[in-house]
Amino acid sequence: xxxxxxxxVALVTGASSGIGAATARELAGQGAAVALVARRKxxxxxxxxxxxxxxxxALAVEADxxxxxRAEAAVQRTVEHFGRLDTLVNxxxxxxxxxxxxxxAEDWDRMIAVNVQGLLHTxxxxxxHLLKAAEExxxxxxxxxxxSSIAGRVAWxxxxxxxxxxxxxxxxxxxxxxxVTRRHVRVGVLEPGGVDTELGSHNGPEVRDAMIDPFYETxxxxxxxxxxxxVAYMVTxxxxxxxxxxxxxxxxxx
Length: 254
Ligand code: NDP
Known about the structure:
Blueprint (H helix, E strand, L loop, with lengths): L8 E5 L4 H12 L3 E6 L2 H13 L3 E6 L5 H15 L4 E4 L14 H32 L5 E6 L12 H21 L4 E8 L12 H14 L5 H12 L9 E4 L6
Parallel strand pairs: 1-2, 1-4, 2-3, 4-5, 5-6, 6-7
The chain binds NADPH dihydro-nicotinamide-adenine-dinucleotide phosphate.
């Protein structure tokens, strides 16, 4: 029996770990051919092998999406290899926390480069293919899912520039939704609360001790698969139904 995404092609950024890896597995399990995009090629190749062993189809595409040319090349490689693109999951992200006062401004640049500029690069390159899929493809609909955060809904002390990037993603997503929804490209945000991934590990020990470890030690957080499930829900709605926003929290997180 054909699965819901059979015949479609998805590109997932940040597929080398956490939410992106789980999402790639889930979409492949539902029948999509999946392009796995991130910088750590060995991880992508291992995941592509796992997906193939499970009967799916995946392609490892090494790319730093903060570089516009490389992000565009990743989209082109996907379309050249699989012949089309139906689904873009903009998931790659970086969260470096801490006070604004005395911050290392390079941390801000790195976050903005991945969370905002990287997302813009892949979206811009993918849109012509998504519009074509929506017009000519068998499903006559295409999808962009942007992985934002609860930090795109609520601001907290110490989250300043991460909040800035995720609030920005939410605003951009809704604007783009209005631009292309009547052409049947659905655009939505998924906003997770705490998920068990590598996201916090890029912070220094001071931030981890004060802001990250205490939360994870006292909260039953989500698994990456919980978010993958949400992405799959968004991209498998009937053509006339578009999920603009999905907010998934650990039950244990107030
Ligand atoms: P991870 O750190 O496990 O994954 C982040 C992914 O982004 C990695 O695959 C990494 O791959 C990729 N990435 C980082 N920089 C680049 C780059 N320049 N080019 C290409 N890929 C890049 O964290 P999560 O899975 O948690 O994060 C996924 C998304 O979920 C992020 O947008 C995050 O903000 C969001 N989120 C996470 C929450 C959580 O609690 N974990 C909560 C709310 C939102 P590589 O290093 O190989 O390039």
